[in-house]
Design brief:
This protein is an all-alpha fold. It has helices at residues 3-20, 27-37, 46-62, 64-79, 86-119, 123-139, 154-166, 174-184, 189-218, 224-251, 255-270. Helix 7 (154-166) packs antiparallel against helix 8 (174-184). The longest helix has 34 residues, at 86-119.
Length: 272
């Protein structure tokens, strides 16, 4: 490929990653389908780690106020005896539950990620798992939970954490799996959304730290510009896609994502 072709190639995949990462339609599944459909090939999983980190930065920007509040109140709970208000205690335990929910995906990913990727490789398998995602979204399409941040429990954290580990399978959306689990547990849409995307932060950050040396090695030479373009594209696309998804959640229109997963999943399973 020429440098221009490389830039356009990685711009395209960066946009796909950014647009599909926050919404419950599986970014990894779409990358597999597009590569099969257009006979394209991403040579390294390092690219996915890079654009996932770009998506992480977008999530950090959008949820920056929640992150600052949680960090402040968490430290206050630990180091101040006089200021342990109910709000401070609530935020401290919210952090604890996020940490607990991170463990299943982290452990399963380290032990079985390669085996999972190999077992569920190919567009037809991704099509099947997208259909499963569509069914799950259809089930919760009209749910209106009552649990807010203060009502979360250890059981909620463990179940949502386990659901995130299921999303290691290509075609199972991470945001979809965690939001479905959260809403089946009775969480309000706002709480489910917040918990899901704050839970995305430690797993994505941990993956990036483990792979960062490979990124700089593979990003040397002619790949610097294509990788940089993909990174910026994924960052911007994720920001606007997540903002859009938050509005969709407020209006309770998850049925559209369910239909989309059925259509794309059926296409990938029966045609590709």
């Amino acid at each position: 490929m020429t440098i221009v072709s490389l830039v356009l190639f990685y711009l395209f995949f960066g946009l796909v990653q950014g647009l599909t990462e926050p919404i419950p339609i599986s970014s990894s599944g779409h990358l597999v389908i597009i590569q099969d459909l257009f006979n394209l090939k991403l040579e390294s999983l390092t690219f996915e780690v890079l654009v996932n980190f770009a998506s992480l930065l977008a999530v950090l920007v959008i949820y920056r106020q929640d992150i600052i509040r949680l960090a402040t109140n968490g430290l206050t709970f630990l180091f101040s005896k006089e200021k342990k208000t109910p709000a401070v205690k609530q935020d401290f335990f919210f952090i604890v539950y996020l940490m607990i929910a991170t463990i299943p995906a982290g452990v399963i990913g380290l032990l079985f990620e390669d085996a999972i990727a190999e077992t569920f490789a190919g567009a037809s398998m991704v099509g099947l798992t997208l259909i499963v995602t569509g069914i799950a979204l259809f089930i919760i399409r009209n749910l209106k939970g009552q649990k807010s941040d203060r009502d979360l429990s250890l059981k909620d954290a463990i179940i949502v954490g386990l659901s995130q580990s299921v999303a290691l399978i290509p075609g199972i959306s991470r945001s979809g799996a965690t939001i479905v689990a959260a809403m089946l547990l009775g969480m309000k849409q706002e709480t489910a959304l917040r918990f899901s995307f704050l839970l995305y932060i430690p797993v994505s950050l941990g993956t990036f730290i483990l792979k960062v040396s490979d990124i700089f090695t593979e990003g040397a030479g002619e790949m610097i510009i294509p990788y940089a373009v993909a990174f910026v594209a994924a960052l911007v696309a994720t920001y606007f896609s997540l903002r859009w998804f938050m509005n969709i959640m407020e209006r309770g229109n998850l049925i559209y994502f369910s239909i989309y997963c059925f259509v794309v999943g059926s296409f990938a399973f029966f045609i590709l």
